[in-house]
């Protein structure tokens, strides 16, 4: 039995509080401090749960005052670089909300820092963790692997606040989930993308809230993404609605619990969902991270791996802005130059 690990949680907004409750469901973790720049936010989060954990206004303050075996970075993306860097330099492993940073260049900085300090940095891509997507992936692989993969994501959130004013709300704030899921399902990283982004006339977002993108992979596979955040009526799951075509048939996943497969000469048949021993979503992402601290496999969101999902977003935005196909290698080359110049 491993000792109870102390966790600093940085960010006490809605998502931070969800993470606090996720930690509380584990007997091997204990919140040692909560941090938030908004006065009173950390204190109220602690008091609502009946805890006596100390609160701080900065990550540096918490790291210097309390013991920590890991840090959860649930701040706004613009603060991810500073908070994660402080923890890595203090020798504290980090599990960060997505995106790991706003830009690929900053993500490469963190990857270098993680490597030089030997301290683990992982991004929580929690939508990789569900019985549905695992069963969908297994069914595709059993039929020879998808050569053509597509997802349709249509939702209609009225967030209010900063998302309504973003230049690229769908691509930057949401599409990384689908892009990361595509990497998981195809088990490879893309080489190029062509993307068009637009604003339907009825959209309540200032920026482009709809997009169509096609990614090309080294194997020759294609992944197509069709999405909108201003789609009233007949919305899809927040995981999207997926279809994969493979040499020995086709498999669909509704984004929730229905996986259906059909071969050339078969009738469509439901595929039973596999088990989820570590739960799903945040619970599973946290379990994977803790297992790595115990000497288990490298997590799927480890920063050197996860930077590819962020690069897919950055490349899609560049393609939409320029109206041309973008090669991922060029995105990384530019990001490395930017990172080295900082």
UniProtKB/TrEMBL annotation:
Boundaries of every Gfo/Idh/MocA-like oxidoreductase N-terminal domain copy: 7-121
Origin: domain of life: Bacteria
Protein's name according to its UniProt entry: Putative dehydrogenase
Record InterPro entries: Gfo/Idh/MocA-like_OxRdtase_N (IPR000683), Gfo/Idh/MocA_oxidoreduct (IPR051317), GFO_IDH_MocA-like_dom (IPR055170), NAD(P)-bd_dom_sf (IPR036291)
Any Pfam family matching the protein: GFO_IDH_MocA_C3
PANTHER family: CONSERVED EXPRESSED OXIDOREDUCTASE (EUROFUNG), OXIDOREDUCTASE
GO MF term (any one): nucleotide binding
Domain GFO/IDH/MocA-like oxidoreductase per the UniProt entry, residue ranges: 169-233
Native source species: Labedella gwakjiensis
Keyword terms, alphabetized: NAD
């Amino acid at each position: 039995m491993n000792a109870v690990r102390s966790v600093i949680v940085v960010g006490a907004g809605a998502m931070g509080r969800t993470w606090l409750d996720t930690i509380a469901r584990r007997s091997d973790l204990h919140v040692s401090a909560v941090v938030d720049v908004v006065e009173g936010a950390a204190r109220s989060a602690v008091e609502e749960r009946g805890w006596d954990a100390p609160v701080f206004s900065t990550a540096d303050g918490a790291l210097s005052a309390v013991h920590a075996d890991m840090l959860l970075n649930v701040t706004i993306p613009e603060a991810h670089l500073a908070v994660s860097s402080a923890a890595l330099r203090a020798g504290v492993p980090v599990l960060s909300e997505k995106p790991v940073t706003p830009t690929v260049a900053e993500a490469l900085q963190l990857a270098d820092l993680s490597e030089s300090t030997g301290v683990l940095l992982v991004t929580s891509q929690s939508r990789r963790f569900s019985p549905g997507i695992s069963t969908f992936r297994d069914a595709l692989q059993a039929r020879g692997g998808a050569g053509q993969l597509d997802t349709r994501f249509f939702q209609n959130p009225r967030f209010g606040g900063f998302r309504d004013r973003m230049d690229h709300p769908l691509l930057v704030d949401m599409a990384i989930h689908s892009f990361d899921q595509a990497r998981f399902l195809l088990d490879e990283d893309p080489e190029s993308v062509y993307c068009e982004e637009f604003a339907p006339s009825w959209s309540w977002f200032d920026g482009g809230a709809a997009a169509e993108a096609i990614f090309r992979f080294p194997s020759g596979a294609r992944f197509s993404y069709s999405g909108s955040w201003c789609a009233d009526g007949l919305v899809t799951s927040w995981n999207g609605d997926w279809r994969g075509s493979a040499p020995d048939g086709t498999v669909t996943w509704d984004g929730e619990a229905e996986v259906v497969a059909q071969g050339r000469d078969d009738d469509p048949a439901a595929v039973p969902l596999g088990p989820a021993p570590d739960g799903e979503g945040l619970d599973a992402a946290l379990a994977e991270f803790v297992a790595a601290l115990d000497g288990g496999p490298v997590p799927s969101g480890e920063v050197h791996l996860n930077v590819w999902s962020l690069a897919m977003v950055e490349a899609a935005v560049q393609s939409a802005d320029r109206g041309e196909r973008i090669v991922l290698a060029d995105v990384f080359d530019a990001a490395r130059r930017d990172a080295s110049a900082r």
